[in-house]
Design a protein that fits this description.
Elements lengths: L2 H18 L2 H6 L9 E3 L6 E2 L1 H8 L7 E15 L2 E13 L10 E14 L2 E11 L2 H11 L3 H11 L1
């Protein structure tokens, strides 16, 4: 199996576990031997070390519904048994009873992760979500609001 396929299978499993919010299984995909793992979630301050990561995972998200999807995986071998993975991820969440966000909402991030091969398989030790810049988000939102009739008119003129 190619390294790209191995890492793609790993990312698919990690995202599946996040969607189920199965913290013990997610944690099992991290390298517990790493003394100072790094986890940067888009919405939180950087977490360095196991106590910070465990506290983040300890937040009760049982009432929330979430859907993460991913694509466009790039894999680079940094050294034997060490890879850098990069992919795009979209997140969607619904938090029942939340006054600030009474409806589902979501966004897009780019993920850069480092994994090392262990006897039990690939394991994370460095994970960073990079959100799109506000200007890009605003542009995409504005473009998404364009009436399809205008797109049809432009296409007809170009045709």
């Amino acid at each position: 199996m190619s390294i790209e396929r191995e890492i793609g299978d790993f990312v698919a499993e990690y995202v599946r576990l996040w969607n189920a919010y199965d913290v013990p299984a997610m944690r099992a995909l991290w390298d517990e031997a790493e003394p100072s793992p790094i986890y940067v979630a888009e919405e939180a301050e950087p977490m360095i070390g196991w106590p910070a990561i465990r506290a983040y995972w300890g937040i009760d998200r049982s009432r929330s519904d979430r859907l993460l999807t991913w694509d466009r995986l790039e894999v680079r071998e940094a050294a034997p048994d060490l890879v850098i993975a990069f992919y795009h991820m979209r997140w969607n969440v619904f938090i029942p009873g939340n006054r600030l966000y009474p409806r589902p909402f979501g966004g897009a991030v780019r993920v850069s992760a480092m994994l090392r091969r262990k006897p039990e398989g690939w394991r994370l030790f460095h994970y960073v979500e990079a959100p799109l810049a506000a200007l890009i988000q605003l542009r995409q939102a504005s473009e998404a609001m364009v009436d399809p009739a205008l797109h049809a008119r432009i296409a007809a003129r170009a045709g």
